[in-house]
Specification:
The complex is a heterodimer of chains A (about 210) and B (about 300). Chain A is mostly helical. Chain A is built from nine helices and no strands. The termini of chain A are far apart. Helices cover about 30% and strands about 30% of the residues of chain B. Chain B is built from ten helices and 14 strands. Classes of the chains: A mainly alpha (about 210), B alpha/beta (about 300).
Chain lengths: ~210, ~300
């Protein structure tokens, strides 16, 4: 079986990561998210009320705030959808589409390439929180070191919140990218999948956060 | 090599861009000449599988470029009239991306291919520079390099020399001439007549979505032998001469007008001297004729 990286989808995905790695914006986002993570570690409600800063509840609570304040879903969606429009504006599209590549592979490669970069940026928020466990303040309560809850909440809660509006935007932008016949049902299906996963996964995760 | 048969295209704005075009394109460089809005770019886009034709076929090596797009794309290289690259990527990274899209997955093979292409278009020394800093000519050469990936059988170049300085133009002509071979057809769409005269072995003239004529440049020039006359006259005389003779071009300079006219076998006036016909004379004569009049060659 051929590696997904050796497909047109993989080529577009890798190129999108490469192009983003040369932009300033992802690094600015990483610094911003890291700074906020430090701020919310030492000066948030957890420090004020004496909650365990690395408790399930506080991790989930911080991610909720992060998702809606810092990583506004629609902002994420634009970051994932706009590179497609930009290719058309900058006239790279005729060079791409004269190659043996389907529009579906192109759009999905773009979408997931940008999603990957965005998730890497957002992961700095969680990774900083994770690392801060080894630098306890006198004013914060730190439970024994834990790793899993950070990944669990980040991937399930944050990931689905990012993909959900992203797929919706992909759905709407397909009108401009001339392949709505193939991609529209796909992106609508993705949107439904994220909504369902939001109910099935994020809610129990939130309940778990409250209980711990 | 390429057989185009009754190709039609009407845009949603009801503009009929192609009116049943039929054409045979042999190996070598084939020039497609026509004024702006003649339908050249529409035809190029259809052949490059970027635009749907309403009807007709375009067959090459048993593959219909209109219906079998995936197969067609493996054997074509396309350099559009207007195109862009990712400005932050280097020339090397840009070609690497397009080579992957063309299906060159083996890393070593891809590297060797990119090295060879960059060398061929004289960009090897700037391979690690960002494309955003390239001049127009360098971008055009990188454009042709991406079109050559995967040894295409059909190369389509749409208005490639517009905006290039004379040196870059000659360099580009040489590059195209080296590329065209026994098994490769290059379609050069342009409104610059000298481009066709310099490098094309065959040509067609298109106007209002119809092919007016198909011939070789020497054949076209031959038809005007001993028919082209030239005169430099005061400006005031131009309108009188235009009503009397078939003027194919007039150039103003320093209060005078240099006219070129066609007159078969008969000197149009005392002020006229015989001139050596060039392809531009043939082209201007053809496209200024009223619609429906017969072509001069076929």
């Amino acid at each position: 079986m051929r590696s997904p990286f050796k497909t047109p989808f993989g080529a577009v995905f890798q190129n999108e990561v490469l192009v983003n790695s040369k932009r300033v914006a992802p690094y600015v986002l990483m610094i911003l998210f890291t700074a906020h993570s430090i701020l919310w570690w030492g000066w948030s409600a957890a420090a004020t009320y004496g909650w365990g800063t690395n408790s399930d509840y506080n991790i989930f609570r911080n991610l909720q705030g992060f998702s809606f304040i810092l990583g506004l879903p629609i902002f994420n969606a634009v970051l994932m959808g706009d590179p497609v429009i930009k290719d058309f504006q900058e006239r790279v599209d005729p060079l791409i589409f004269s190659k043996p590549l389907s529009r579906a592979a192109y759009l999905l490669g773009k979408f997931f390439g940008n999603f990957f970069v965005l998730v890497c940026c957002q992961a700095t928020f969680v990774l900083t929180m994770l690392l801060m466990q080894w630098f306890p303040w006198s004013r914060v309560v730190v439970l024994p070191t834990r790793v899993f809850p950070y990944f669990k909440h980040f991937l399930f809660f944050r990931g689905h919140l990012t993909l959900c509006p992203g797929s919706l935007l992909l759905y709407s932008r397909n009108t401009h990218s001339k392949c709505q016949d193939r991609l529209r049902p796909g992106s609508f299906f993705l949107f439904l999948l994220h909504c369902i996963s939001g109910v099935l996964i994020a809610e129990p995760a939130a309940a778990l956060g409250h209980s711990s | 090599m390429l057989k185009i048969n009754k190709l039609n295209k009407t845009y949603s704005s009801h503009i009929q861009a192609l009116k049943g075009i039929s054409l045979e394109v042999p190996a070598g460089i084939f020039g497609l000449l026509g004024p702006n809005g003649a339908g050249k770019t529409t035809l190029m886009k259809i052949l490059a599988t970027l635009l749907e034709a309403d009807s007709g076929t375009a067959e090459m090596h048993g593959v219909d470029l209109i219906s079998d797009k995936d197969q067609a794309r493996t054997m074509l290289g396309y350099l559009p009239q207007e195109f862009g690259f990712y400005p932050s990527l280097t020339a090397d990274q840009t070609l690497n991306y397009f080579a992957k899209l063309k299906g060159v997955w083996n890393g070593k093979e891809r590297k060797a291919l990119i090295d060879a292409l960059l060398d061929r278009v004289n960009l090897l020394s700037v391979r690690n520079q960002k494309v955003g800093g390239f001049s127009g000519g360098m971008q055009q050469r990188l454009g042709i390099a991406q079109a050559l990936i995967g040894e295409p059988k059909l190369i389509i170049v749409d208005e490639p020399t517009a905006g290039l300085d004379p040196e870059e133009r000659v360099r580009f002509h040489n590059l195209l001439s080296e590329t065209a071979g026994e098994n490769v057809a290059v379609i050069l769409s342009t409104h610059i007549v000298s481009d066709v005269a310099n490098i094309c072995s065959r040509m067609a003239v298109i106007r209002h979505g119809e092919i007016l004529v198909t011939c070789s440049p020497p054949e076209a020039i031959d038809q005007l032998r001993e028919s082209v006359w030239e005169a430099t006259v005061p400006r005031e005389m131009v309108s009188a001469l235009k009503s009397r003779c078939q003027v194919i071009s007039s150039q103003m300079f320093a209060g005078l007008a240099r006219l070129r006219v066609i007159s078969k076998g008969e000197r149009p006036g005392e002020e006229f001297t015989p001139a050596t016909p060039v392809l531009e004379d043939y082209y201007f004569d053809l496209i200024t004729r009223p619609e429906g009049s017969p072509g001069m060659a076929s």
